[in-house]
Amino acid sequence: MMTAIGAGVATAGFMHLLTHGLFKALLFLGAGSVIHAVGSNDLPNMGGLARRMPQTATVFIIGTLSLAGIPFFGGYLSKEEILGAVWGAHLTGPFALLMLVAFLTAFYMFRVVFLAFFGPGPVVVAHAVSVNARTAATPPRVAHAALHNEAVVEGAHVNETPHAHEPPVTMLLPLWVLASMTMAVGVMSTLHIGVGRVLSDAPVGETAPGWLTPAAVGVALAGILLAWATYQARAINAVSLANAFGPIRAAALRKFWIDDVFEGIYGVLLLGFARVVGWVDRYLVDGVLNLLSDWTVQAGDELRGIQTGKPQDYVYGVGAGVLVLILLMRLVF
Question: I need a labelling partner for 147 at 20 to 30 A (CA). Which of 51, 178, 227, 278 fits?
């Protein structure tokens, strides 16, 4: 969206904002449906959900294809228009980066699809432990859970893919509404039914080349194919593929050191500044106030002595004050 605005074609960005809102909402709600059914948001605890949750799988795949920018799905036209706007603005570097992002988006999203909906379920690891010995020291409920690779949390079974089921209609209805709107936008935009080209505000003569659409769809299909070969067909070892990008993988695992940067900023700059402020508050502000209060107390102790409680002393004081005033008036005036 920001790229389209930067390329001077704001309408493409606004259209992507619309389509992105539809299929991203669909994906988030679909993920919530899966988490609700499985009881976990970890992919290793999922697998084979398409058989038990066919409606959720269908709408999630619709959202994923829209995000990948496949024709007849919601994100197709807006993605093409953004790429065309960037190419038309002669921004070759950003264009190449966007094509790489399109490939990676299709790859990582279909990784989720294949692992969650079509992959095998959680692996049951058999432990060579005597059942009788375990039963003697383990409560029956926990031993039963261990034998069936179940998790016991406050008496409930969780992380059990075989128990996954479709959510109630209150959760499915919004999913189908969003999926229908996403498909409607995709079909109408692909066939140009009632949808004008959003590049109407582009400079005259700046049209997208004919190879742009096949190239954009091709990189998305390549990402889907790589995800299928890696996580569904298992023709490519996922660990070997990750190790092939060693430095990038290491940086990704460290979250590109963003957390470390923020922790450094917090630990060094913010806490250091807080210590300085604390020292100023403790020793300068409080010190000055404490010094003034001590002087006030000492002055009060000194002045307390002139209060004797004897009337004659007060008469002498009044007389002395009158003499001082008379002298001042004579000297000044």
Answer: 51
